[in-house]
């Protein structure tokens, strides 16, 4: 993996040089991990003209949630407490007579930016922008393999929950059990706070579990994801509890299912982000649910659960192959509940079979 991280840093170095910057300071944790293999708490990465180095307030631990650091990367641990690794990195860049330093202005606070200027007044600070995020957009097969395992873990955890008794249990209890099962099956932890919604709470986007208990006849919507070696997937399903679904539940479910399938089928290289959103949104809009829809249909996943691209009505850009995204349309009817169906997929060309579905738990409307 050291060669992979070195190659990633090499691409960034070339981009900085082309823009007239001698070095780059990476402070956003996901970007630090992408370029170095690990993101110790508070660590920053200096990508220099000839050598790269990580600056940390404390020694890397090697814990799973931190990642495994590129063994060829030089690490400087600050002496004493209270030091800022970013300031130390800027000082090091100045010491090797770099005349300019590209920084992630979207991540730096104003106070930290001022501190960099004060320690290296002769160093010109330029905005790196979203250069690393754009580099992260297309995943290599090693990254996709981690996402595939994360999806398998999430499928296992959800499948086991569906085999247990659900009536009478609280949303909060079910969410905690799902997160425990994720870890039991090898996840480093949940990819994001698990959402469980029952009855009138079902179908809400990112609903925070409450103490409401599952009742017969409820819709039960679940959204969870696993974090495996830093890579995060997402799956969402909706079920009916205890009885044959009511007519309105079947109708609403079929509508959301049709919309989700349309969104999945639109995931091809070259498709505009807004076209994917439109494919799913138009189905729900035509059924009269326009006001109940979320502002997006899906988003990218990787080292963060919500990263580019955004599949939304005004999003600009087109899909590339090997970009993992979610397709997650849903409808929530106030006072009644609703449906969410959410999958993680990887964009693939039609010659390779089209979009690769990573989350495979059934999307049939089950009565549990």
Task: Describe the model.
This protein has 368 residues and is α+β, with helices and mostly antiparallel strands. The chain starts with a helix and ends in an 11-residue tail after the last strand. The chain is elongated, with a radius of gyration of 23 Å. The strands form 6 sheets. Strands 4-3-2-1-5-6 form a 6-stranded mixed sheet, with helices on both faces. The chain has a 3-stranded antiparallel sheet with strand order 7-10-11. A 3-stranded antiparallel sheet has the order 8-9-12, with helices on one face. The longest helix is centred in the middle third of the chain and has 22 residues, at 141-162. The protein has 9 helices and 19 strands. Helix 6 packs across helix 7 and helix 8 (247-265) packs antiparallel against helix 9.
Which structural class best describes the helix and strand composition?
alpha+beta
What characteristic shape results from the CA principal axes?
elongated
Helices and strands, in order, run as HEHEEEHEHEHHHEEEEEEHHEEEEEEE
Q: How is the main sheet built?
A: 6 strands, mixed
Question: What is the number of strand segments?
Answer: 19
Q: Helical percent range?
A: 25-40%
Domain Peptidase M24: 146-348
Region (Disordered): 187-213
InterPro entries: Creatin/AminoP/Spt16_N, Creatinase/aminopeptidase-like, Creatinase_N, Pept_M24, Peptidase_M24B
Domain Creatinase N-terminal: 8-138
């Amino acid at each position: 993996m050291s060669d992979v991280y070195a190659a990633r840093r090499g691409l960034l170095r070339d981009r900085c040089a082309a823009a007239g910057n001698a070095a780059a300071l990476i402070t956003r944790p996901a970007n630090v991990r992408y370029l170095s293999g690990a993101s110790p708490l508070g660590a920053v990465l200096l990508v220099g003209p000839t050598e790269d180095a990580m600056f940390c307030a404390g020694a890397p631990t090697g814990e799973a949630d931190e990642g495994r650091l590129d063994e060829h990367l030089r690490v400087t641990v600050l002496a004493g407490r209270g030091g800022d690794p970013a300031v130390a990195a800027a000082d090091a860049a100045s010491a090797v007579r770099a005349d300019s330093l590209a920084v992630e202005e979207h991540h730096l606070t104003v106070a930290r930016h001022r501190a960099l200027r004060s320690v290296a007044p002769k160093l010109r600070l330029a905005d790196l922008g979203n250069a690393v995020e754009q580099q992260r957009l297309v995943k290599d097969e090693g990254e996709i393999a981690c996402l595939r395992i994360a999806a398998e873990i999430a499928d296992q955890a959800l499948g086991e929950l569906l085999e247990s008794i659900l009536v009478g249990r609280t949303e909060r209890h079910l969410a905690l059990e799902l997160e425990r099962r994720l870890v039991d099956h090898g996840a480093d932890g949940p990819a994001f706070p698990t959402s469980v919604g029952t009855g009138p709470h079902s179908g809400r986007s990112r609903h925070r579990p409450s103490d409401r208990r599952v009742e017969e006849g409820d819709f039960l919507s679940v959204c969870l994801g696993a974090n495996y070696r830093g890579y995060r997937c997402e799956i969402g399903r909706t079920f009916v509890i205890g009885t044959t679904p009511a007519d309105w539940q079947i109708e609403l479910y079929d509508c959301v299912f049709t919309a989700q399938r349309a969104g999945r089928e639109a995931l091809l290289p070259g498709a505009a982000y807004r076209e994917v959103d439109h494919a799913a949104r138009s189905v729900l809009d035509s059924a009269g649910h326009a006001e109940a829809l979320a502002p997006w249909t899906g988003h990218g996943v990787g080292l963060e659960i919500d990263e580019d691209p955004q599949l939304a009505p005004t999003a600009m850009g087109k899909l590339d192959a090997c970009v993992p995204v979610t397709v997650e349309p849903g409808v929530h009817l106030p006072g009644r509940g609703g449906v969410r169906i959410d999958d993680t997929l990887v964009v693939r060309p039609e010659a390779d079979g089209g979009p690769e579905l990573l989350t495979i738990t059934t999307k049939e409307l089950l009565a549990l």
